[in-house]
Amino acid sequence: MSVQNPLRDKRDKRLPRIAGPCGVVIFGVTGDLARKKLMPAVYDLANRGLLPPGFSLVGFARRDWATQDFGKIVHDAVKEHARTPFRESTWRQLAQGFRFVPGDFSDDEAFDRLAETVHDLDRQQGTGGNFAFYLSIPPSFFDVVCKQLARSGLATPENEDQWRRVIIEKPFGHDLASARELNATVESIFPPDSIFRIDHYLGKETVQNIMALRFANQLFEPIWNAHYVDHVQITMAEDIGIGGRAGYYDGIGAARDVIQNHLLQLLALVAMEEPVSFDAADLRAEKEKVLSAVRLPLDLDAYTSRGQYAAGWAGGVPVKAFLEEDGIPPASTTETYAAVRLDIDTRRWAGVPFYLRTGKRLGRRVTEVAIVFKRAPHLPFESTATEELGENALVIRVQPDEGVTIRFGSKVPGTAMEVRDVTMDFGYGYAFTEESPEAYERLILDVLLGDPPLFPRHEEVELSWKILDPIEEHWTASGSKPEQYLPGGWGPEAADAMLARDGRGWRRP
């Protein structure tokens, strides 16, 4: 009989997750992502005791700032956007490692100054020569920044005990060819294990909980297949428009912006086989198998849909149409809504359609995965007893109100046998006393720890583009315009018709 070690049981569970000596350099530090997500995430990690005492944060931008100005920018970002309370002791320690280097991406002298700053931090802060370079910049600049990191010696550690890593934000290209070109550029400078492609959805607790739900429980896995599942719906809906992102969004659209990465990654996690382990290589192997087995519908007109939001009312206020937004050409054919049916040619999923949809100016902000089960083959009740009974469903809510809902039939209280749909809810906020960390906290810490399971490799990226490219090419070749839809609804009529052809309908989240 084994005896539990009381010291082991009482140890601080953070210990395996505390980063060693290191620092982060953020390129594009003046952008919204850095201000609203990255800098607050760094502070929150420090506040939770997960960063080393000498952790350093270096900003690089084309601004005439001194280090104290940069510190003020970080301070304001933390005050406004941090998830954890502001503590003066945490701030003072963190601020000791702040540095700012002004310069242009093509400026050799600026990168030489950056190299000197990194060496100085090794001596002053004890960062140990370990740095991650966060490219929070448009992909068009990846090439020049990576080459500057190589030229200045920053991309290469000085000895085998040190590491240098690069973090890339999506989009990973705009099609298969550009993704391959981007991968070739980055991998010519950094080894594959040192490249971390961030899809922030993979850092969300509920997304990771898909794996726990499936593989830590005997309850669900026996029915997670075509014998019991009727179809799967994956939805990412936003109630806002494009805001000030016209320069990025026009020409990209909803399918490239969301389906190619977020939704196909969710599909892979839902549909993959159990990995041998949760090591990065084993997890990626199973996801790649799923993506390589995805089959497009033969009739892309019938089983894809795209739309643009029209002018109307949202949240009680009038809103512009997409074509009226500042910076959008009046003849733009960029879609703000996209939906597609995909099939997976494996024994587990043969005959089970996966419906993916995403859009802006929809009824509410929600991201969810709904596994909808087949109806019971026989109901031994009077026909009037089950009029309101729908299919059983397991719904994984990614955001907001993270959790899991199960819908099933239950008897209505009373003397008659009447069966109606009811739900059971699990919510993170109710089940756990600890608040879920923000996705960027988890992902930045994983980079500093060198823990890669949540980061897609270039094989996954390329497989995703192989799925989406034919759809984009079909839309372009057809010459048709996206269908207009009203704000506050759930997208164009063609999207409803797509499911109606299969005798199904979209869930109302």
What topology emerges from the helices and strands here?
Layout: H1 6-9, E1 23-27, H2 32-47, E2 56-61, H3 67-81, H4 88-95, E3 98-102, H5 108-125, E4 131-135, H6 142-151, E5 164-169, H7 176-187, E6 195-198, H8 205-215, E7 229-237, H9 246-249, H10 253-271, H11 280-293, E8 294-295, E9 304-309, E10 312-314, E11 317-319, E12 337-344, E13 354-359, E14 366-373, E15 393-399, E16 403-411, E17 419-427, H12 428-431, H13 439-449, H14 458-478, E18 483-485, H15 493-500
Give a written overview of the molecule:
- With 509 residues, the protein is an alpha/beta fold.
- It has two domains: 19-169, Rossmann fold (3-Layer(aba) Sandwich); 202-437 and 480-500, Dihydrodipicolinate Reductase, domain 2 (2-Layer Sandwich), CATH 3.30.360.
- 34% of the residues lie in helices and 20% in strands.
- It has 15 helices and 18 strands.
- The strands form three sheets. Strands 7, 8, 9, 12, 13, 14, 15, 16, 17 and 18 form a ten-stranded mixed beta sheet that branches. Strands 3-2-1-4-5-6 form a six-stranded parallel beta sheet, sandwiched between helices.
- Helix 11 runs parallel beside helix 14 (458-478).
- It is globular.
- The chain starts with 5 loop residues before the first helix and ends in a 9-residue tail after the last helix.
- Residues 1-12 have low confidence and may be disordered.
- Keywords: Carbohydrate metabolism, Glucose metabolism, NADP, Oxidoreductase.
- GO terms for molecular function: glucose-6-phosphate dehydrogenase activity; NADP binding.
